[in-house]
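Listing S7. Sequence submitted for prediction.
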Amino acid sequence: MDKTDLAKERVRELKSHIIPADEVEKGENNPETKAEIVRKYKSKAEDVLITLDYVMENFPEYQGRREDKDLENDILFCRLAYGFQPDEYAFFGLEKQSKKDFHKGG
């Protein structure tokens, strides 16, 4: 498998996790709607639950916050909406970014 095939496979794999754009927009604008969307599509994100647990237990900024459902929903929503893994969410500081900055890429 060459790099092109690998890239295409990665895109196919990500598409299987990504939710429709209208759902993303609704979830970005309302925490309650975000929670509903995460509940609806959580089965698409089951592959990241172990990584989510690891991040919540081992990343200093998240330790002691395991019961924070808004944080958990945001991490899972970022997986479902944009394809970010929980460790990428932590690394890029997505919790602290406004959605406006997030879409600008900074």
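Caption to Listing S7: primary sequence and predicted structure tokens for the chain studied. The chain has a mean pLDDT of 84. The two ends are 33 Å apart (CA to CA).
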